[in-house]
Amino acid sequence: MKKLLAFLMLPAILLAGCGGPETPPDEDPQDNPFYNYETEQAKPYSVHYIADDFYQTWFDFMQGRQKESETKHNYSVITSIYDAKPMVEKIVDEKDDNYITLIFIGIGPDDYEGGTREAAEANLQKNKDFINSLKDITAPADVLLHVSTGFPKAAEETDEHLIWNHEEFRLFVADLRESTNDRVFVFAANRALVNDEGSIKEEYIDENNILNEAGFSKLTADFLSYLGIIAGRITRDTRE
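Above: the chain's sequence. Below: its structure in token form.
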């Protein structure tokens, strides 16, 4: 699937502003960096999107449709997502404590490999090492890291090794959420829109294997559900 898939990757945290639910100030301010104790509500977001050029179409789409809100949006497209570390370091160094800083990392579909188990394992380890290097920067600074798994592909582009790679990466990032006390999150794009064989359902793509309107609608619903859960978690004390 080509660039149109990117339209849906984080649609409405940001179209609507996403301020987060209120949280009673019954804990020490040092325990909850995501809560503003003066205004007694969740802090607004500062969202930084970093991805390779697969996401360019989506970034253009998002920037033209954002509503007035307190949310700040920053978009960066780079040739290789694996060159993102210096950008992440700069975001962390310059973060504004009046905002919840969130970094979205979009690893493009070409950065997940199948073909053979050996190739899939090597690629999985590369992506694990990459995300770990970012997590070690963001988590100690209370910067939220959101990572998407690979998207499902059409049947002719899918094999058991790619499916395994996507799922193992999802499990890896999910484990980071627990080990970082809710500072790393995964959107399981590999589980969206799939059939029993692990490839994308034909009803969601056109004859060119590009996501159609039904696919956009389903993926949006899945993603908004994910964001609703996350928004409720990060405004509360996650260090118990």
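The beta strands are 35-36, 41-42, 45-52, 72-78, 100-106, 144-148, 184-187.
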